[in-house]
Amino acid sequence: MSIKKNVPTVATSLGKPCPVCGRTSYSLGGTHPQCSFLAADQKLLELYRDADGWAGKAILNIAGSGKFSSDRTIAEYAASIWDAQPCPIP
Predict the structure, then answer these.
(1) pLDDT by residue for the chain (90 residues), tens digit each?
(2) Res 54: pLDDT
(3) CA distance linking residue 24 with residue 30, whole number of Å
(4) Is residue 57 one of the residues assigned to a domain?
(5) Distance CA 32, CA 18 (A)
(6) What is the rounded CA–CA span in Å between residue 86 and residue 59?
(7) What is the model's pLDDT at position 38?
(8) Which helix (H) or strand (E) holds 16?
(9) Measured between alpha carbons, how far is 46 from 52 in angstroms, rounded to an integer?
(10) H or E stretch including 24?
(11) Is residue 40 part of a domain?
């Protein structure tokens, strides 16, 4: 069995500096998990400081969520199993 040299592997980032904190990282992604979390948390805080931008993102998130699958499942179950009809709310 021969060993191939200069073949990139997943572990090529092991022992290299973390791009977030600069300390040596031995994780496969090359970034300490806590550093990734802290970087994401910092980005979240920056986004939250912009109230108008945050509100716009929240509205787009809600608008893009669509109909919940559990709502559809419950409605189908009620109609097919119980033969129940929706009750309109005034």
Answers:
(1) 455 555 445 545 567 777 777 777 776 666 777 877 888 899 999 999 999 999 999 999 888 877 667 788 888 888 999 998 888 887
(2) 93
(3) 9
(4) yes
(5) 7
(6) 28
(7) 84
(8) strand 16-17
(9) 12
(10) strand 24-25
(11) yes
